[in-house]
């Protein structure tokens, strides 16, 4: 019996490799207009998935959709704020109307709104918890009928929630973000236990330093609008990957690999967890940190 199961799995992987790791599957990826989300959308499309991309910036989605088309992939764009009350129904309905199913949800959308604990007002706390915990929960709940399926309807299905080393270890100036990213881990483990009997896998990725606008130098002046306010993004004094200190590794003595990750590397970790290569991985938090924090 064990040999038969091994043969079935090996055959499935062989067939999948030939057509792409996610061939014919449908993946919703939030925050796909740039950064890690964009890289994940392109990679999933290359691996044969129908990709439903979402971002608050509709113009950026148009660019990503065109990039997917140019590599021979297929996508559906659903612009919107993941924190909006009507967003989960909007994206789930659009996905099912076009593709008839959902295989994967990658809750990637998010941002930082850093302040020291004693100066953090309620609205700064609330918006981060809303986007990083409430929004993923509501999207997953909305999609429940397409995950809690009868045995004969089941395919490869997974939930991937994005956490951070801040959620694992805390971080100065990020009480709100650290609390939200810790909560996501508990949410994911609960999904694993509740939906595992339906064949659904649920995992978290805790990213360390990945070079995006959120980890770039704050001095660059990049901002985003949150509830009508311009919020500065980035980390004070952060070194870009092109900086000589970063290239030599001197900028990252706390990271054993002595560098930050790029967004394609971050997307590859997402692909692994969504793919049949992780068919028996569930309830896990994958630390993609270059060895930091061990």
Quick tags:
alpha/beta; Rossmann fold; 2 domains; 7-stranded parallel β-sheet; two-stranded antiparallel sheet; disordered N terminus; oxidoreductase activity, acting on the CH-OH group of donors, NAD or NADP as acceptor; NADP; quinone binding
Secondary structure topology:
Elements: H1 2-19, E1 26-29, H2 35-46, E2 50-53, H3 58-70, E3 74-77, H4 87-99, E4 104-107, H5 122-142, E5 157-164, H6 165-169, H7 175-195, E6 200-207, E7 223-226, E8 229-232, H8 244-248, H9 263-274, E9 285-288
Parallel strand pairs: 1-2, 1-4, 2-3, 4-5, 5-6, 6-9
Antiparallel strand pairs: 7-8
Helix pairs in contact: 2-9, 4-5, 5-7
How does this model look, in words?
The chain has 294 residues and is of the alpha/beta class. The protein has 9 helices and 9 strands. It has a 7-stranded parallel beta sheet, with helices on both faces. A hairpin with a 2-residue loop joins β7 and β8 (229-232). α2 packs across α9 (263-274), α4 packs parallel to α5 and α5 runs parallel beside α7. Keywords: NADP, Oxidoreductase.
